[in-house]
Amino acid sequence: MKVLTGTTEDISKILYQEQLELSKENLDVDDAVRQILEDVKKNGDKALKAYSEKFDKIALDDFEVSQDLIDQAFEEIDPEVLEALKNAKVNIESYHKQQLESGFEDQPTDGVIRGQLIRPIERAGVYVPGGTAAYPSSVLMNVIPAKIAGVKEIIMITPPQKHFEPAILVAASLAGVDKIFQVGGAQGVAALAYGTETIPRVDKITGPGNIFVATAKKMVYGLVGIDMIAGPSEIGVIADSSANPKYVAADLLSQAEHDVRARAILVTDSAELAEAVEVEIEEQLKRLPRENIARPSIENNGRIIIADSVDAMFDLMNQVAPEHLELAMDNAYDYLDKVQNAGSVFLGHFTSEPIGDYYAGANHVLPTTSTSRFSSALGVHDFVKRIQYMQYSKAAVNAASHDITTLAYAEGLQAHAKAIEVRHD
Amino acid sequence: MKVLTGTTEDISKILYQEQLELSKENLDVDDAVRQILEDVKKNGDKALKAYSEKFDKIALDDFEVSQDLIDQAFEEIDPEVLEALKNAKVNIESYHKQQLESGFEDQPTDGVIRGQLIRPIERAGVYVPGGTAAYPSSVLMNVIPAKIAGVKEIIMITPPQKHFEPAILVAASLAGVDKIFQVGGAQGVAALAYGTETIPRVDKITGPGNIFVATAKKMVYGLVGIDMIAGPSEIGVIADSSANPKYVAADLLSQAEHDVRARAILVTDSAELAEAVEVEIEEQLKRLPRENIARPSIENNGRIIIADSVDAMFDLMNQVAPEHLELAMDNAYDYLDKVQNAGSVFLGHFTSEPIGDYYAGANHVLPTTSTSRFSSALGVHDFVKRIQYMQYSKAAVNAASHDITTLAYAEGLQAHAKAIEVRHD
């Protein structure tokens, strides 16, 4: 891992440069994706079939995954995986139900009613990657908040497969997906955004995908809503001398195994711990089945930052604004106040990140590459809209009229003023 | 106005085609904006000064608007405008305070704590357009929610002027802006996103602007948060035979005067009302100072849709998903349940849209071009992040261990399983 030392300001500069790199556009992908979007918009199902043959090497007659295939998945799934998915679902539901908002209404003066409604979006689309990146846990994390929000119809799409991983179809069914279509990539995103003869267009698209999927989501944003542009996954660990280097190393590696671009960042005020973690990482890496991914990730993107105080540790980590943040400290709960930017926080020596990835119930779809500075974990709030409303009686309009028309004339918007004046007695 | 009749399905298709047109990209602008962003990222203040001379024809020594200029604005402002701004501020504050969320925490089983913190974003940037599009009311609407959310520093930028409209500076001061810099366009957005020697980079950028500003916001999205990509302003009016055609016409025109691209859409089940509104529009247009804007807007983008039932009126209008929605009906409040998509709803014959634009307290920064299907008015929620947290005791990890490792192995993520197993006794 690269070790960063120096003043907080020096390290800040380095962190910001890295963040700029991560947010760069890729213009070649842009052009390819733009063409796919146009094609699907124009040619619908026909385009989808062509892309399926070209990219997935599968000729499809029908995109919808049948109930028979789903029933079969329930028969094929390992019963222990089924049990674990069901238990995870219970926890995800009980956590997310706490996010349900209610509207409000007040009557600030006579004849005036103001309020805010909370309405679910009507139709949501969830993208689920294919192959080894198909995670049943992500299906639960994307679908359950939408279901709790009250979304009427949830459409899932996933690249065509000769044989679907049973846990994916089972998770979709447990979570309450209404329809599953086998179509992936930028063309899948296009189908959800524009609709085709068989795939209905949705109001919002969520779920992770490769660079083509991410670029397509960014391009259709505006016509439909999207969750976020997910970058490489990352973990930040703040550890002091009370931390166990074995645990810290294992947690950093659990992130590194995701992707060669994944980032594992340790901030510590203990040089001794930093060294012990480096030794442990090497020790554990050797025995890791996904060493081929985790090693380049750790070597290229791993960072150990030595800070000289508790406050400096938190200042720097708040600048990293990590997707996952572990506080490997005694009495970690007491330090929550110092956390300004993070998607999800794991407190104390035993709360390893995978607990949150799979089980505790908080969402694992989290803001990456420093976007936790301004955005949040996926949740029920992402599947609702707030609709404002107001009602003024005739007397209330007359009472407010002078102020309103004064502002309208000051802004040069005379028709705005006239719309009030036409209602005068 | 163009009159649309036919089945709900036919009209739906036309509305969707119009929506597609509105969401099209403009690739020429893209290239120009990309160059400006790169220039400001690399050259900072020097680039900003060059663009100010080039685009604004003003040579600046210092970007910051001094306290002297702000004090002077308070002396210059029309006292009635000042009074109206103060009254509007009171209403905006009392409405938005109702949006403040609190976090939650539960202990679902022994040794497990889960929760969600609400944290304000740290630094927000507000873009305020220059010239005739500089609206003091928009300053209040963008800044007050950020202030209520608890944002620590609010930076406002606005294009350089020989003499600033006093109401703009006064509104900024009343609302609690911390610093004002005179820099506009794509270069202004770049300054907020990347920071320069004098302008600090922010975590989120809000506020309306022209196509260059909007494109720049879209491009820096990811590195910073943005509010939304605002399209042309629009009003939808659902009116039945109880509506007053004078009022309906005045309200449609109040939207049309904003911009030749603004959209005014009437849906009614009364052919008689439709005709009366058309006559009134012509009558009022003639006397409108901004007729040169409002007339092409009404002629090109005005729509009258004749629906054959109350439900059909709401179905079609929910598909339009207008930024502003007026229900010009008796007992309008009782129809709120039928509204699925709208930014802000104005109930009854007297609640003219300008009441909401200026005064009632609900926000006037609203989702345009059908995006109210999945997004909402600007509010306090746009200036906070939700941070999840969890803590498992050693015993709680052991109890959950089997389920977690089962799922990790099923997904082929062995390091995730190891991070749990390393904590076993």
UniProtKB/TrEMBL annotation, chains A, B:
The entry's keywords: Amino-acid biosynthesis, Histidine biosynthesis, Metal-binding, NAD, Oxidoreductase, Zinc
Pathway: Amino-acid biosynthesis; L-histidine biosynthesis; L-histidine from 5-phospho-alpha-D-ribose 1-diphosphate: step 9/9
Annotated residues for binding of substrate: S233, Q255, H258, H324, D357, E411, H416
Catalytic activity: L-histidinol + 2 NAD(+) + H2O = L-histidine + 2 NADH + 3 H(+)
Annotated active site: E323, H324
An annotated GO cellular component: cytosol
MF annotations from Gene Ontology: histidinol dehydrogenase activity; NAD binding; zinc ion binding
Keyword Nucleus: no
Positions of Zn(2+) binding: Q255, H258, D357, H416
PANTHER family cross-referenced by the UniProt entry: HISTIDINE BIOSYNTHESIS TRIFUNCTIONAL PROTEIN, HISTIDINOL DEHYDROGENASE HDH
Protein name: Histidinol dehydrogenase
Organism: Streptococcus ruminicola
Gene that encodes it: hisD
